[in-house]
Amino acid sequence: MASQASEAGPRPEFPKIRDVPMEQPLQWLKRGWGDLISCPTASLFYGLCFVGGGALMVLALGGAPEYIAAVTSGFLIGGPFFAIGLYEISRRHEKQQPCSLMPTLMAWKGNAGNLGIFTAVLLVIFLVWARASMVAFALFYSGEMPTMSGFLRHVISTDHIGFLLAYFAIGGIFSLIAFAISLITIPLMLDRNLDAITAAITSVRALFANPAAMFVWAGLIALLGGLGLVTFLAGMLIAGPILGHATWHAYRDLVE
Questions:
Q1: Is 86 helix (H, G, I), strand (E, B) or coil?
Q2: How many distinct helices (H) and strands (E) make up the chain?
Q3: N or C end of the chain: which has fewer CB within 10 A?
Q4: Integer Cα distance of 44 and 239 in angstroms
């Protein structure tokens, strides 16, 4: 038995989680802004990636409300990967290294295998979320699907309240799952070369260890993301890099 245990290899050591105050996410945004100001060219390049990615998703939506969840989940799940270069910018700035664009484009190579595994996990979440959304529409809207204007009218007037409760409950559950497992997972994999499972579990532990701060952080992400959307994605040019840089600082504060 002992030989079998030794052959299995040592158990992975999970990083220790720090407790942070409820208002700490505001400091992450402040530091994220500082990184953007210090490294504007590289940071704004990734801001353009957020704008371009968002535009493609809006085009994919094509005015069909049944695809809202797919587009939203795609943005939430794809965001951390757009931000890999931003994490590298913050890491290099922290170490007082040059933060030019070219080195950040290859940051993913350091742990490509585990990033691929994590991508597959998020892709499964994306597909299940999108499918659950389509099922909700099919159950509550018999016959022809509503137009975007009709769907928004139902949301504002609380028509089809049962559908709205089910739809937003589904979105809330999948948003929480995606947020929990991707909170600091990619910075952990890039900075400490952790495997995808250990990094994701550490991310979930950080969330449960700091529920108040994570609630504030999720709200700030939603607020800045919402501002980016209501400005016809132009706001994502700034909001995307700030959130990416801030996520790096969240990782540095949350993990010893």
A1: helix
A2: 13, 0
A3: N
A4: 10
Phi first, then psi: what are they for 15, rounded to 5°?
-60, 150
233: left (phi over 0), alpha (psi -120 to 50) or beta: left
39: DSSP letter? S
| Pick from 82, 76, 23: nearest CA to 50 | 82
Interatomic CA distance for residues 124 and 121, integer angstroms: 5
Residue 46: alpha-carbon gap to chain centroid: 15
pLDDT along the chain (256 residues), means of 10: 47 87 98 97 95 82 67 72 92 93 91 91 86 82 71 72 83 89 95 95 97 97 87 92 97 97
Give the SS3 label for residue 106: coil
The confidence score (pLDDT) of residue 141 equals 76
Residue 4: the pLDDT is: 46
- d(CA 81, CA 116) in angstroms, rounded, equals 11
Structure tokens, 132: 């659950």
Domain parsing of the chain, residue ranges? 37-254
Q: Where are the alpha helices (DSSP H) in 210-254?
A: 211-230, 236-254
Q: How many whole angstroms separate alpha carbon 3 and alpha carbon 6?
A: 5
